[in-house]
Amino acid sequence: MSEFRLKKLIIKDICLLLLLCLLFTGCGKTSQEPLTAGNLAGRKVGVIIGYSSDYILSKPEYGLDIYRYDYYADMTLALRFNRIDAIATEMDEAYVFCRMQPEFKIGLVAEEQLEYAYMFNADRPELLEQFNQFIRDFKKTEEYADMLRRVEASADAPFQAKKIENTVTTDRVLKVAAFDGWEPISYINAATGEWEGCDVELITYFANSLGAELELIDMSWEQMIIELSSGLVDLMLCPDSLMLAKDLEMSGNIVMSDWVFLKDIVLIVNKEEN
Amino acid sequence: MADLIQSIQGSIYINLIYEHRYLFLIKGFGMTLYLTFLSFLLGTVIGAIFCRLRVSKISAVSKAIFWLKTLFIRLPTLVLLIIFTYMLFSDSSLDTVTLAIMAFALKTGSYISDIMYSAIETVDKGEIEAARTLGMSSFMAFRLVVLPQAIKNALPVYKNQLIITMQETSLVGFLAINDLTRASQVITSRTMDPYLSIIITAVAYLVIGAVSGLLFKLVEREKHLRLADFKDELGE
Asked: Which chain B residues are within 8 Å of A250, Cβ to Cβ?
């Protein structure tokens, strides 16, 4: 065989190999079968990177194919174009998500509720103790029950925020990192410029119990972690699953409180196809 | 000193060993290698086709290819990924990895077609005319006169293109593909300690770059050895 023919054959082989590699990468469209607890294995589920849903559902026992996104917008696009089967999030976020985007619905709810808590700077043990005491008592109150009812009602209408006045009786300032744009958890009302949301109400009750002035500082998740680790803020408002507590303890800078909310992890799916 | 060692040990444990987190990095490394080399090989094929069509005697084809490759070069890679995933192939059954490879291959192919075209242009026209005068067909003149010189001229830039393709693959995290960069982000999101996983990721990228450089050197060495053998056979 001449050298030229040999080279031609090699080039053909390489092209064939590339084609086969492409074919073996598989098909990306998701299964049209409705999601049930029994057929979750291998399903493509989108999560926000670092969120509790990512942490929990990444565990091998679920057998899910986890797609980690930076933003809800990217994840929503992926679900809309069936690049993923479902979006995993907490129930309270799912209420608002599905209300604002009616083409999606809650497809599946996890069987057991998970405990969610706030993160505190590890160098403030006395503040953590005060908060734990506060939350134990607060969970028994009507205010707490009412807050949960209003969160649930946000599935049908915008969250009915309740204005809690911050009563300052000491010169103490409680610096709290919060995330804007997260109805019904924490957000700035565009009309009034005021912080609203169930987390905001709860932390105002706590500040009042201390007689401290509440200072809410708007920042991204990444910034929150850095500022909390370095002690620039006392706590952060985004509640996370207590399953993260061991990791945070090992990092040495952040500790978690006792549980504040019980939340369901849910899977949001396309309405028309599931 | 003991504190520092203990802190490093703790960091290694939480970043790599606890919950087998090193697996994220290993899988991410594999995905980055897969994306880089497949995109680059396909890109080379596309580049060669674009280059051949660009020197076509049919003006419409040549112009169309010129504008097509300009489009791919000018569009940012992330925008190209979005267009491929959510516009052009939104209804196709191809998965995101395949679409990412296609987008990277077209981007890389456009650059490579420019590299090849410039390399061919640097060969003196007189040499081609001389080859034709000696009775070579235009294909033979291309293969025996133009191509060896063009390869020699193009190789340094071509090598760099592989590194650029590898760097661009780090954008696939946007499509939730778990490559090396994404793997380090996942670990950081769990440990809130970005340093160790980022250092490992940086080293892994440097290793891929170094190994590819070494492979290119081996190819060049092989070429020189074969040339020397050829000269020996001719008795020079």
From this structure: 10, 13-14, 18, 191
